[in-house]
Amino acid sequence: MLPKKNRPMLANGDRVLKDAFKDVGKYIELPARRAFLQRSMTLGGLALLTGCSITDDESVEAALLTMSRFNDKVQGWLFDPKLLAPTYPESMMTRPFPFNAYYDEDEVREVDAAAFRLEVSGLVADKHAWTLDELHALPQVDQVTRHICVEGWSAIGKWGGVPFATFLRRVGADLGAKYVGFKCADDYYTSIDMATALHPQTQLTLSYDGQTLPPRYGFPMKLRMPTKLGYKNPKHIQAIFVTNNYPGGYWEDQGYNWFGGS
Ligand SMILES: Nc1nc2c(c(=O)[nH]1)N[C@H]1C(S)=C(S)[C@@H](COP(=O)(O)O)O[C@H]1N2
Ligand SMILES: [Mo]
Prior knowledge:
Layout: H1 14-26, H2 30-38, H3 41-53, H4 58-78, E1 119-122, H5 132-136, E2 141-149, E3 153-163, H6 164-170, E4 179-184, E5 189-193, H7 194-197, E6 203-208, E7 211-212, E8 222-224, E9 237-243
Parallel strand pairs: 1-9
Antiparallel strand pairs: 2-3, 3-6, 4-5, 4-9, 6-7, 6-8
Helix pairs in contact: 1-3, 3-4
The structure holds the ligand Nc1nc2c(c(=O)[nH]1)N[C@H]1C(S)=C(S)[C@@H](COP(=O)(O)O)O[C@H]1N2 and molybdenum atom.
């Protein structure tokens, strides 16, 4: 929670906001809680969206949006790539893992593996398009982490793939650039800051629970970031670009917090 003097003024939304903060606690397991509280801006990002989903009050939404912009700034200062999100034993995996997208599960995009090429553009030395075999030939790691969606659920899953920092170095990305943007096979798109792109737990994910990433979870690949809310984790990635021009995102351009994490 923000120190009181730094909190944006809320008209009649104060109670709703407090309730939203209280709710957030439910999704954060105890051992992780201290770390989360130390990085308290995370709660602000989450509360923004939890708040919006429990009220239609326009003034509350306006206040929360202000807070969101504020958080974008402050979270940037607080971001510490040495802080790791909690990991879990495989026995704690959520089964079945939930599906979510801006459309229903029967409309999931089917991507043809053989024809697939990952486009890489912008501030990178090597702009060649990658086949899936080439991506599988890079070093792979697994992570069992919690995915937190602003719609009010969280779930633990096991994802495998290439540490994104490894990929960015392999393509000779300008690691001093501001943003990495993603375009997806549906109409989804999002972008992250370079510090997050290089975070050790940020993964270009090719598998789920030891199997090829299924279509509903984003075949042929997604970006998995346990330090970011669900909507920052793009599925069905088709193109990756490195840029200094703010690329926005599908939900972010509709008012969701761009930083969206810790
Ligand atoms: N391409 C694409 N990626 C997306 C989305 C989407 O609609 N399209 N939804 C986001 C949201 S809001 C969530 S919570 C997660 C859900 O991922 P899952 O289906 O693996 O649970 O995907 C994120 N990435
Ligand atoms: Mo989400």
